[in-house]
Amino acid sequence: MRQTTLLATAFLLVSAVPVLAQAPGNTVQPADRLQIASCMRRGAATTAACIGSIAVPCVRAASGDRRDAEIVCARREEAVWRERLTLATQMLGRSLDAGGRSQFTALQFAWEGFAVQKCAFYGSAQPAARSAGLQAGCELREVAQRALEVERFAAGRGRRAPASPPQIIR
Question: What's the pTM?
Answer without folding.
Answer: 0.76
